[in-house]
What we know:
InterPro entries: Beta-lactam-related, Beta-lactam/transpept-like, Diverse_Enzym_Activities. 33% of the residues lie in helices and 17% in strands.
Amino acid sequence: MSTLDAAWSLADAWPVAASSIGVVHSGGIETHGDMQRRQRLASVSKPLSAYAVLVAIEEGSVHLDDAVGQTGCTVQHLLAHAGGYAFEGANPVGKPGVKRIYSNTGFDMLAQHVEHSTGIAFVEYLDDAVFAPLGMHNTALEGSCAKDVHSTAEDLLQFVHELRSPILIAHETYMSAVMPVFPELAGIVPGIGSFDPCPWGLGFEIRGQKTPHWTGTRNSSSTFGHFGGIGTFMWIDPVADVACVMIAEREFDEWGMQYWPVFNDEVLHCLGR
Length: 273
């Protein structure tokens, strides 16, 4: 018997070929499915890549106020999807700090900036700064840092442990990443909807008061994480002291918003949150 049996039953009814799920809470770790099944994470790659940028900031190689891209755009803007760049495409579509425009381009620009600042290829820097020290041995960047990290649910749990009790970066740096940056900005969470405000941290989406949302109604407004269009998610709720990672073999579409919030609510309900 598992504390989360009711949640696992919901996951078993998902219209997917397979799913791998891990939940971390004050009582330990509970898992469901093949935790070593490896696949692309899609946009769950972004928090991992952002964490490498934060390590570079800690080392002094990169600074939040470094200029990157169009006039007025900085590392901080790009990490928070406030740089004025579209989802794809090198040309800006707005001014920095005006609107939350979700951008893969911005993250690719960040990777190039880290490479230029450190003299180390970003694929190597990400492994050296994040994957290797956290023991994420089945995780690697195989393309764009915005969407092409390949990993397992087991490895993602190692990252979750870091996010619950950081050792790679200072507490002050960590808190700056998981709190809203440019908190007044409106924007769109792709596949979910438009929100005003649309809170985001440095590489992490912040739940805030967004409704509807891919996390649950029981999740606190402080919940942070990310989901990926390939059918992946990771969230950490610091108020509930619960975190969850999930990798599924089905791309995010209507099924995600139909099943994920209900599942996430059941996880928190089973744990008495």
